[in-house]
# Entry
Amino acid sequence: MKRSIFFGALGVLALALVVTACGPTADKAEFIVNNAAEPQTLDPSLIQGVPEHRIYMALFEGLTIYDPKTSKAIPGIAESWTISEDGTVVTFKLRKSQWSDGTPLTAKHFVDGWIRTLKPETAAEYAYMMYIIKGAEEFNQGKTTDPATVGVKALDDYTLQVTLVGPAAYFVDMTPHYVFSPLPMHVIEKYGDQWVKPGNFVGNGPFVLKEWKPQDYIFVVKNPKYWDAKNVKLNSLKIVAVTDEKTSYNMFLKGEIDWDTQIPTDLIDEVKLQPYYQVNPQLATYYYCFNNQRAPFNNPLVRKALAAAVDKKALVEKVTKGGQIPTDAFTPAMPGFTPQPGVGYDVAKAKEYLAQAGYPDGKGFPVFTILYNTNEGHKKIAEFIQEQWKNNLGITCNLKNEEWKTFLDTRSNSHNFDVARHGWVADYMDPSNFLELFITGGGNNDGLYSNPRFDELVKKAATMPEGAERNNVLMEAEKIFAEDQAMLPLYWYTDLDLIDLSKWDGWYGNPLGVHHWKYISRKK
# Structure
């Protein structure tokens, strides 16, 4: 899922303590999770990261939701669906449900919500995920202005028809993603960008927004108008934003947090021995993003030199230490798909690449900056890579951290960086979900990579049925991407969490690391 992620698969040991204040209502929260970041937004059209996605799952529900064990799509607002014989038309039958203000939720709320997300002026970073829908790309890019050209229609109040550009068998598994959320347009039209604030907010998920204390916590309470409210076991959630991992760890040990989404690196050997330590393989990649349009990183030889100078095995063994898998490829292995690696760790080759680029022994290479979001784990990784590049190539770089929201704006909107940390957790289990990030002009193409042949292959795969032929096209695309060394893959994640499963039920390890609030309950 999912999206650009806030954390590495490791926690960090912080230097300062952060005290999380509690409002009078929030004190009564039945379940408390440390989300470790102030959300950038709660607007589904504008969400970019994992912290926001966790909150989204409490407040909204799309056509489908993620199965808590397999991460595959299961019925949400859509109680069933049918797919045409040629695989290009998917028809969803919606259950009768309502928004938290009592307004009936109909197929038109999906149509209007998706069109709002696709409108160029919305500037939705994940709009490109909808390009699998016929006409969506042209509408999003302003080539057409008529919403009727987009292949999504309300056949009646409870029937939604979606026409695709090709027989994308994975489409239904995409629909739990927040980009496909219905939207309460009657509320958005009334309050504008203030519609997600307490008092204005209207959602259709298992919980509804009660309080939001910026930089501290979000408090949500059970939504009595949710269609499946009888099966929601928790009455309230408190989602705190403790960025200091040592503080949140101590809070967990004292019972002040029920689920901590991060692990303090310096204590990981101790934490691993505890029964509340949860580690699960995750379909996700931690990587460094090069600004492909900024010299000297616009030179593939420079990018290859930087990639070949990093010992990823040492990184995961000495720094992250959470079972991560070092990799030279971006896309993890999936059925029928073999990852296509870029250059591996080879200092001699790295020096050769750098010399060919015009910087023998690093001479004349400009001082540059590694940008990362404020987090001690990301800092430790950046320091390791900084040292690798200094020792192996003779080049110097500085480190800069920014608070999460500012960091996202710098990396994703202004692209004002040299090298930036990045991470991607799959939104659905298909190689295209990784490769489509780097299509020219794509919303998540933060490094501004561009290769027409790569674009052509990824778009071609979107029109093909499942099978070996499609996988070969995707592997050919990744091979081109790897040969260009457009970015620096470091490792494939493991999902590390702290939660006592002797006390809590309904929380399961799964490939996407998604844990839906609907299923969590206290064991009796």
